[in-house]
């Protein structure tokens, strides 16, 4: 009887060992846990997109702990992931962004809308490059959208076109958004002269409340009629902005720009991190996506600056071509980089508000580009 109990105890102990995460760790798990810790370090120590990188990094850690079952059916993140799988979280993020966005600089200088459009060239140029590297058309579309430097748009597009690439695409999109201050300045300096960077632009005209109220209505109707597939992003973006500018639903606007976007950001980030399983993330495909992503972002920056130079050449009023770099939709980081680069040459040059025009135009442009890709490839 005694020996029988000892044997049972031994089997129970062996079963316990089999169900301990330590005994089931693979080298892929260890690497991805390290990647998760690195993302958290960058968020805290370097302040690179901390609102996203902290939950993404922690999600990666959770997903790579063996036997946690957190992403399996019945696990908590399995159900939260429905918000990404069915395209719910990105439009909610856009609702909050709309409630925080001031379209005044864009309305005061409508020409800068063209700079936001020009920066989307990186999306379609990288799409061709991805096809050349052997990706399918839907996969290439998901990779190309990284060039818009808009994380929610990249996630929304990828969830429909290539959900199996969600982890690498999301990480690339948010990483390059965080690295805007490192990636953009060398490109901006390479493509402009010192004299061009010193150009001081005229003060923007005041924009009336009526203009600000009508703008989201008109843009929503015209853009969605043009690209119906972009309706979830454009529609929620403009609804958030309308709530902000109307002045009669301040409580709803505050909720959109605070509680809704904050809660959604947590869920979005941790679910993205949970897709970064070692066995699927540590592949040559991921490396290709990361390389193509930085190429996409660089081309988008360059095309915006070059179009800014073109506008400056033909315009009767002074236009600093640096503001073209803000055509990517990394709001407001890209605009701040433009401001910094302008003051690098002339401390009295204030380009921030001028750069915000193409910056918010870039958000609209990337959403329209995503709608086009979904209409063609979806």
Structure explained in plain terms:
With 378 residues, the protein is an all-alpha fold. It has one domain (83-377). The chain has 21 helices and no strands. The model has no long low-confidence stretch (mean pLDDT 90).
Q: Topology, please?
A:
Layout: H1 2-18, H2 27-45, H3 50-63, H4 76-80, H5 82-85, H6 89-100, H7 104-108, H8 113-118, H9 121-132, H10 137-144, H11 151-161, H12 166-178, H13 180-191, H14 194-197, H15 209-226, H16 231-246, H17 250-274, H18 278-281, H19 284-314, H20 333-345, H21 352-377
Helix pairs in contact: 2-3, 3-17, 6-11, 6-16, 6-17, 9-10, 9-19, 10-11, 11-12, 11-21, 12-19, 13-19, 13-20, 15-16, 16-17, 20-21
- SS element count, helices: 21
Query: How does the helix and strand content classify structurally?
Result: mainly alpha
**Ends apart, CA distance between termini:** 67 Å
Please give the radius of gyration in angstroms: 23 Å
Mean pLDDT over the full residue set? 90
Topology, number of strands: 0
In terms of DSSP E residues, the strand content is under 5%
Share of helix, binned:
over 70%
> How many separate domains make up the residues?
1
Largest sheet: none
The helix/strand series, from N terminus to C terminus, equals HHHHHHHHHHHHHHHHHHHHH
Low-pLDDT windows of residues: none
Global shape: globular
């Amino acid at each position: 009887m005694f020996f029988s109990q000892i044997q049972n105890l031994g089997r129970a102990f062996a079963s316990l060992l089999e169900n301990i995460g330590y005994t089931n760790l693979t080298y892929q798990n260890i690497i991805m846990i390290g990647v998760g810790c690195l993302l958290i370090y960058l968020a805290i120590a370097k302040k690179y997109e901390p609102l996203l990188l902290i939950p993404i990094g922690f999600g990666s850690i959770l997903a790579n702990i063996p036997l946690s079952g957190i992403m399996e059916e019945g696990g908590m993140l399995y159900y939260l992931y429905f918000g990404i799988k069915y395209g719910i979280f990105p439009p909610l993020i856009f609702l909050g962004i709309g409630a925080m966005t001031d379209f005044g600089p864009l309305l005061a200088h409508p020409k800068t809308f063209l700079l936001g459009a020009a920066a989307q060239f990186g999306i379609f140029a990288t799409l061709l490059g991805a096809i050349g590297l052997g990706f399918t058309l839907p996969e290439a579309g998901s990779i190309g959208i990284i060039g818009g430097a808009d994380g929610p748009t990249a996630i929304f597009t990828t969830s429909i076109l290539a959900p199996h690439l969600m982890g690498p695409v999301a990480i690339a999109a948010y990483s390059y958004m965080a690295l805007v201050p490192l990636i953009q300045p060398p490109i901006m300096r390479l493509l402009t002269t010192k004299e061009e960077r010193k150009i001081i632009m005229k003060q923007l005209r005041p924009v009336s409340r009526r203009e600000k109220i009508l703008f989201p209505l008109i843009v929503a109707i015209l853009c969605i009629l043009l690209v119906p597939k972009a309706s979830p992003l454009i529609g929620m973006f403009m609804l958030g902005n309308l709530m902000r500018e109307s002045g009669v639903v301040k409580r709803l606007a505050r909720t959109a720009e605070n509680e809704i976007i904050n809660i959604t950001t947590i869920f979005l980030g941790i679910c993205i991190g949970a897709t970064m399983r070692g066995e699927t993330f540590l592949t040559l495909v991921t490396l290709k996506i990361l390389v193509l992503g930085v190429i996409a972002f660089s081309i988008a920056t360059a095309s915006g600056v070059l179009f800014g130079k073109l506008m400056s050449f033909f315009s009767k009023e002074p236009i600093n071509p640096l503001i073209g770099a803000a055509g990517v939709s990394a709001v407001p980081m890209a605009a701040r980089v433009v401001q910094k680069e302008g003051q690098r040459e002339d401390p009295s040059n204030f380009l921030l508000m001028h750069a915000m025009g193409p910056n918010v135009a870039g958000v609209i442009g990337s959403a329209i580009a995503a709608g086009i890709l979904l209409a063609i490839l979806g």
